Description:
Layout: H1 7-15, E1 20-21, H2 28-39, E2 44-45, H3 51-60, H4 65-75, H5 80-87, H6 91-105, H7 110-119
Parallel strand pairs: 1-2
Helix pairs in contact: 1-3, 4-6, 5-6, 6-7
Amino acid sequence: MTSFGKAALVAEAVRSGADGYLLKEDPARVLVDTAARMAAGECALSPGLDAAAVKEAMNTLAVSGRELDVLRLMVTGTPAPEIAVKLGISPRTVETYRNQLVAKFGARNAMDLIRRAVESGFVIGS
């Protein structure tokens, strides 16, 4: 349950294994109904979400878990050598993930990547 309803965030949660996504402003009746659907094994989304936008976000930007780890650390301003240490990977691997993310987001460079990722709601800036 969250107050963030941007399609990219919903898509990220579902890709990460969430069985549902509810908005805090949903009425109590919706919360109870959705919780029951999730308990029955369904993936349930808040009716307040733009389902078409969520579907598009799910299909358009396939970012791996490790790429997401690197991106989140980049957004916090963590330098590449420190990202490598935190994630237990080489600095060259961090650079590879960064380049893949730049391409996936259609960014010009790392700063443009961070801006696009935060503005789109794909990650939350610190």
